[in-house]
Automatic annotation (TrEMBL):
It holds the Pfam family Rep3_C. Belongs to the initiator RepB protein family. GO terms for molecular function: DNA-directed DNA polymerase activity. GO terms for biological process: DNA replication initiation. It comes from Paracoccus homiensis. Residues 18-159 form the Initiator Rep protein WH1 domain. This is Initiator Replication protein. Gene3D superfamilies: Winged helix-like DNA-binding domain superfamily/Winged helix DNA-binding domain (1.10.10.10).
Amino acid sequence: MEDIPRDRLSGALRRGAVKKHVAAIHVSGKLTLLQRKLSNVLLLNAYDTLTSRSRHQIDARTLCLMIGYNSNDMDTLKQSLRGLAETVAEWDMLDEKGQQEWGVSSLLSYAKLKGGVCEYAYSPALAEKLHDPKVFALINLNIQRRFTSGHALALYENCYRFVRTGSTGWWPLDLFRRLMGVDGSAYYETFKHLNAKVIKPAVTEVNKTSNIILTPETRKQGRVVTEIRFRIKDNPQLAILDIDDGEAMRHGPIYARLRQMGVSDRLAKQWLSVHGEDQVAAKLSYVEARKNVKSKVGYLSAALDGDFNNDADEGKRSEPPKTSPQAERLRRIIDLVNSRTPTQRDADRRLFLSQLGDARARDDFTKHGWMSPLNATRIRLFWAEMAPGVFDDVTEELDAEV
């Protein structure tokens, strides 16, 4: 599965990283790898409205794709959501006044799947903790998708927040076992087993997979290991995976032109990150040259999404006359695409591409997007499945594919 572009996600999801509160990290050790990834994506999706909305939604197929498993495997998604609802989150920390606060909550207060949408909620107390900007760790979704071990991802999450200090500090082994989700296991009470089955494999995967390198160190009382800490440094081989808040983009001329046109800061960074400066510059020049365009930002969005063929004569839209049944279907497809969030649009493209085994068909879709003539029937069937009934009143038989 390819890395997730930073516009994959709607709202906070577009950041590509989640501010994950230390409380959430420290209590989710018993989650499976899939549940841990699911927890991160759900949190990122909800982050902007954690304290202002009591319920959050995300397209179920998009959610599956974000986590990296079959988008039709709803049973696995149900099991993972059930696991989050049954997992207890516990925090014990100082509040803003220096008072100790202890709390407990399920990770999700509820979750449901209906009409292809996953709806879920956090308890008010946990939502407040998860949204606290003062104490958090940045979890890069591109990085988390690379992990194959739950222990490795748990170790990464717990270490990354200390990357600026260079060390986690000393953790008692009891705490470390809890963070890794192996507390209560007699087998892992023996450090030899803990080291061989958890620490060494997890460190190896973190160092191979992520943007940091860990070096474990232990401290003993007599001959017994009682504490562990991890030295942390940047991984120069995978530094490209580091979180980029887009600050550098703000100093470029293309960003300035986008902002002058009225594009928001977040959307400008999103487009530059996903499409690159050259492509954005070309589309921007094309749109700027158009006359009698009421919404240049909307026109530019459509151009970047492939809805316009700016190589055609006079920059006309690459769709047939609006009076034909096929044109009506295409119009509805465009409306469906435009109604989707940036996260969902990218997930839709990836999902559709994954269904194309023929290289020629893939190339045509890459070039023309949803207007691909070679994939006309496949595209119609895809959207008919995504939005049942959307073409029901367009009764004429589809033309054969080109």
